[in-house]
Amino acid sequence: MPGENLSRDEARERAALLSVDGYEVSLDLRSAVGDAGGTEPRTFRSVTTVRFRCSDPGATSFADLIAPSVTAVSLNGKDLDPSEVFDGTRIVLEELAPENELVVDAQCAYSRTGEGLHRFVDPEDGEVYLYTQYEPADARRVFAGFEQPDLKAPFRFEVRAPEGWTVWSNGAGERHDGVWRFAETKPISTYITAVVAGPYHYVTDTYERTFEDGTRLEIPLGAMCRKGLAPHFDADDVFLVTKQGLDFFHDHFDFPYPFGKYDQAFVPEYNLGAMENPGMVTFREEFIFRGKVTQASYERRANVILHEMAHMWFGDLVTMVWWDDLWLKESFADFMGSFSMVEATRFDNGWITFANNRKSWAYRADQLPSTHPVTADIPDLEAAKLNFDGITYAKGASVLKQLVAYVGRDAFLEGARRYFKRHAYGNTRLGDLLSVLEETSGRDMAAWSRSWLQTAGVNSLTPQVLLDAEGRIDELAIVQEAPESHPELRPHRVAVGLYRRTEDGSVERYARAEVDVHGPRTVVGELAGAEAPGLVLVNDDDLTYCKIRFDEASLATLREHLGELTDPLARALCWSALWNLTRDALLPARDFVGLVLRFAGRESDIGVLQMLHAWARSALTHYAAPGWRAEGGRLLAEGALRELRAAAPGSQHQLTWTRFYASVAAGPEDLRLLRGLLEGTDTIDGLEVDQELRWAFLEPLAAHGEADEKVLAAELARDDTASGKRHQVRCLAARPSEAVKAQAWAQVVESDTLSNALVEATIAGFEQPSQRELVAPYAEKYFAAIDRVWRERSIQIGMDVVRGLFPALQDSEDTLAATDAWLSAHEDAAPALRRLVLEARDDLARTLRGQACDAAAAR
């Protein structure tokens, strides 16, 4: 990996020297289907012609290419010796002219890691499917070029593919004489070019719009998936959300969609949620649902569709200069995904999901030692890869939500409109956006930016309530705190809600005030004289980004009456705050589990309920005192089964509680029931045990030795699909056997034969909370292996291994000491690798603090 890195300084130098006029890329993918002997193809031919200018004639620069071999290189008609100019990652370009033409004929490699041109063979029917994934810099695995976002250019692609295949790219394409040729794109960055090829199932539709000036816009729509998923593909719903999103963005951005067609491909073994390639968006195929799922899954898909669509403007039309300003696309897309979803689709509770789900990702990331400002310092590509994180996405989106409250919705959207028109097809930095927002709002954006975009860490806001002799509020103040490591106290526009119990027992808001919080203490004068509250909710309506804390009276109210809080957003905010208290070792894990058991059954929002289940499992696995884990697990299983049986037959709540029950089942009776549901000897009214649910039952059975290799092979025969294979691999690795763990470790750490999806599945099955002693020997092996893994494997697989196999279940001071010893001995390791280990160490230290808090509660 280090030889593939590109520094920011190198990119700046190259951008100052070169400007690119256009690319012509010719790919021959006929080798993708292999030969008659069944040999796996390794390479395909890639011929790239790049026309570019040089501001300093005679200078030297380089083009990027990662390929097994280069057949020929020509610069301005002169043939160059590939062995002299190509080192495996770069092509040296000497004595450049004012206008240049570079032609590179290379053999590039098919990928099995989801980076570059990924090749997938469907086990169900043997069909081969290809797709590209480049962000941040893997286009160089497919064609030669200048791999940095600010060297934009138009692209023309042509592709030779096997008979019977269809090929798609960013522009519209047609097949003539066996060659697919695609329309030239607008100027775009290399990392958002795309090729998708294979016998995909393809559905079409059309979006039509007539603007006020009479201009008519027609956008061809397409959606595709593997043939094996076609029976499950609800393309109509995908198109519905797509059209609603296009309407919303046309209404608010005043810049018609600029990239012609709009295809959306749901592809196998995808590393990301989705990618915003203009005209050819790619998604992970898990967004096609093979079994019954809850409304939260459809909402999540809609959010991702709209997130990627927002990128057509924020990211594709206007692109950051370098990855420091990654937030200029990801933060905006994350915010606009929820904003448009709530206002334009049936998912009008999207801000609840945002507050409860997306922000929890941000809060965790912002408390790690690797936390960074939203506008980050990104010195190279490895750092860029790791900054697709909760800060860049969810914190950035939260900050934008606060910005809308700060400058006003109209000023924010007008700023976006001016930004697009001013910088269309160009590249920008932070100041470019701030300047238009200053124009439209009249606010000092520099001060706001310094506080919110250029500092790290999360503030805590705690209410202080003083009552007068008559029991009314004499003074209500908000105390703002910041961690010592990041002491910035930010300006917050917040709503403060006062809640009380009503005669019917519900907890409802009876007073609300908005206030600008500045400094360590802010008095909310508007609420003086109000009746004493049972609950003070700081950041009511979720206007700002902060950790909510409670005064003692409010926390007591939540312990007794959280389920009676009628407003779903307020309830979600309280749950999130309670989870933050648990992670911060201020609330014992058993107390949080108790709150879930007592009140989660009354949670109406299915997305919040699913988060509560995930948090409860995490509380038990990581933050509960070891001596209480068995009891806590039994209580969770009993509570889950109770709620499962009480839920309305066939409802999404029943399905959600069923999945949670399977995830915490451990006792003999629980496992017996799961087996009975699988075999049909037990039934629960309204519960349909479809194929996805069958695998959900099989994993705990496998992990507890109740489903062996023969049982799992039989299930794979029943579900002989790519999805079934991933499930089987995860279940196989979950079995409680020394030989199983040794095999799984060898397949992931010592070999590179598994695809990215099967690496992910094996890691997911390897460490089971019930198998701490069984996997204990791998803690030492982990620290011995990770430096080599990072050097030898792709960055995606390296990240998967370093994150996924960290010995988090060996939650002891010894493991913490071993982590510190590795860090001390590897000060010269790749910064990205050290960052991952430091993050895991921080999680482990937090785990130990949480366990100490929980143990103290038992005394």
Topology:
Blueprint: H1 8-17, E1 18-28, E2 43-54, E3 61-64, E4 69-75, E5 78-80, H2 82-85, E6 90-93, E7 99-109, E8 116-121, E9 128-133, E10 155-160, E11 166-169, E12 173-176, E13 179-182, E14 195-198, E15 201-210, E16 216-225, H3 235-253, E17 262-267, E18 274-275, E19 280-284, H4 295-311, E20 319-320, H5 327-344, H6 350-365, H7 381-386, H8 391-407, H9 409-423, E21 427-428, H10 430-441, H11 445-452, E22 460-467, E23 473-481, E24 492-501, E25 507-517, E26 521-523, E27 535-540, E28 547-548, H12 552-561, H13 568-583, H14 589-599, H15 606-623, H16 629-646, H17 652-664, H18 668-679, H19 691-703, H20 709-718, H21 722-734, H22 738-750, H23 756-766, H24 772-775, H25 778-792, H26 795-804, H27 813-825, H28 831-858
Parallel strand pairs: 1-10, 16-17, 17-19, 20-21, 22-28
Antiparallel strand pairs: 1-2, 2-7, 3-6, 4-5, 4-7, 8-9, 9-14, 10-13, 11-14, 12-13, 15-16, 18-19, 22-23, 23-26, 24-25, 24-27
Helix pairs in contact: 3-4, 3-5, 4-5, 5-8, 6-8, 6-13, 8-9, 9-10, 13-15, 14-15, 15-17, 16-17, 17-19, 18-19, 19-21, 20-21, 21-23, 22-23, 23-26, 25-26, 26-28, 27-28
